[in-house]
Design goal:
Belongs to the Glu/Leu/Phe/Val dehydrogenases family. Keywords: NAD, Nucleotide-binding, Oxidoreductase. By secondary structure, this protein is of the alpha/beta class. The chain has a 7-stranded mixed beta sheet, sandwiched between helices. Strand 1 and strand 2 form a beta hairpin. Bound molecules: NADPH dihydro-nicotinamide-adenine-dinucleotide phosphate. The site of NADPH dihydro-nicotinamide-adenine-dinucleotide phosphate has 24 residues, from helix 7.
Length: 432
């Protein structure tokens, strides 16, 4: 904290991991040797660069670009790119740190990294987004590669941005390689990758619910966000018979009294992904937009926070419990504050940290890399089946390491299970 006082999100992520890991480290002192902890909190490399681009009025704009390469202990760096005005080094270090454990949990050979820019794609024309992406990649391309560092999307980086970024990488490197995941189907992408994080989160929640004899069917589910993760979490909840009673964005919450219908979901997809409109524009019977509000005061059985970090605080956690919520599975990265997590754990409800419940996205990115390496294309059913199996395995790993006093502490389970593999690899590779 003294070394980087301006990185609160990074400190929060490290504190959450070390707090739950500590008793395990004391019981297994080999992990306290070799400087494992001191090394694991320091990125192997971080690059910061200028991204100049020209807007539609001919003005020169300058943004900051970053790539944090956190750990390559178990595979090439892997993690998304985020384009959002709130992006800075501390936010990306927190995301890269979380990514190391998450990628390890998938059981696929991927290290951890994260990158992005403080560029805001909202309100920009396609041509402006393309010029920005090309400029961003003109520097980033020398730091990434199919066996070195493989970026993907995140907040503000969807199919359009990945297309522009990949196109520029290919042009500069003069190679068509699997340097990006989340690619379009026409140029090496995997079926089910767009759906994977949202679907995976719901598959994970399904496994948790089995432990208390419940299923998604008939549950009232509050979802936050209305982007990639929220959209497909909503679709899977509906498919499994649950009721999606909310979506949200940075302007407020859409309350859906009788549960989102298939038609309304299609309208949402068109609004967000084609017209790039705001959630408040989604109108119809049973829909009510609540400006400036979060979804957590709505009575629900389950909550899936799928927007951004620290969007669910202690007061929200208490409101959820008071209204009877029994299961919280994080679709976003670190959406719950440390205090909110403590409240859930003390209450003993089912709580899954993002590094476990949102790992389906990066797991399917790993499957995209495998398909590219084999020059093969799996069917949607095949990828979905593997994704489902991976989420069940992550759940098993959390139960294995997280069982205490007759119930499962998923925070502890995910952190220990993710840590062990990375730490063993670091011990084997010496002090590097
Ligand atoms: P998108 O850009 O597609 O959607 C982000 C959503 O979150 C939008 O509805 C956005 O609303 C909302 N949001 C963003 N910032 C804020 C904020 N400060 N306050 C309130 N709402 C906000 O991103 P994704 O769906 O891809 O990502 C969502 C979360 O899931 C992130 O935490 C990401 O790191 C995580 N994640 C994503 C994965 C993926 O595969 N996409 C994989 C694993 C994790 P608005 O339009 O108003 O900004």
């Amino acid at each position: 904290k003294q070394r980087d006082p301006d990185q609160p999100e990074f400190h929060q992520a490290v504190e959450e991991v070390l707090r739950s890991l500590w008793p395990f480290l004391e019981a297994n002192p080999k992990y306290l040797q070799g400087g494992i902890i001191e090394r694991i909190v320091e990125p192997e490399r971080a690059v910061l660069f200028r991204v100049p681009w020209v807007d539609d009025q001919g003005r020169v704009c300058v943004n900051r670009g970053f790539r944090v390469q956190m750990s390559s202990a178990i595979g090439p760096y892997k993690g998304g790119l985020r384009f959002h005005p709130s992006v800075n080094l501390g936010v990306l270090k927190f995301l890269a740190f979380e990514q190391v454990f998450k990628n390890s949990l998938t059981s696929l050979p991927m290290g951890g990294g994260k990158g992005g820019s403080d560029f805001d794609p909202k309100g920009k024309s396609d041509a402006e987004v393309m010029r920005f992406c090309q400029s961003f990649m003109s520097e980033l391309y020398r730091h990434i590669g199919a066996d070195l560092d493989v970026p993907a999307g995140d907040i503000g980086v969807g199919a359009r941005e990945i297309g522009f970024l990949f196109g520029q990488y290919k042009r500069l490197s003069n190679e068509f390689t699997s340097v990006f995941t989340g690619k379009g189907l026409a140029y090496g992408g995997s079926l089910i990758r767009p759906e994977a994080t949202g679907y995976g989160c719901v598959y994970f929640a399904q496994e948790m619910l089995k432990g208390i004899g419940r299923d998604i069917d008939g549950q009232r589910v509050a979802i936050s966000g209305s982007g990639n993760v929220a959209q497909f979490a909503a679709q899977k909840v509906m498919e499994l018979g649950g009721k999606v009673i909310s979506l949200s964005d940075s302007e407020g919450t859409l309350f859906i009294e009788d549960g989102l219908s298939g038609e309304q979901w299609e309208a949402l997809m068109e609004l967000k992904n084609v017209r790039r409109g705001r959630l408040s524009e989604l109108q119809g019977p049973g829909l009510r937009f609540l400006p400036g509000q979060r979804p957590w005061a709505l009575p629900c059985d389950m909550a899936l926070p799928c927007a951004t970090q620290n969007e669910l605080d202690a007061a929200d956690a208490r409101a959820l419990l008071a209204n009877g919520c029994v299961c919280v599975a994080e679709g976003a990265n670190m959406p719950s504050t440390l205090e909110a997590v403590d409240i859930f754990l003390e209450a003993g409800i089912l709580f899954a940290p993002g590094k476990a419940s949102n790992a389906g996205g990066v797991a399917t990115s790993g499957l995209e890399m495998s398909q590219n390496a084999m020059r093969l294309h799996w069917t949607a059913g095949e990828v979905d089946q593997r994704l489902h199996g991976i989420m069940q395995n992550i759940h098993h790993a959390c139960v294995h390491y997280g069982e205490e006093k007759g119930r499962v502490n998923y925070v502890k389970g995910a952190n220990i299970a993710g840590f062990v593999k990375v730490a063993d690899a670091m011990l084997a590779q010496g002090v590097v």
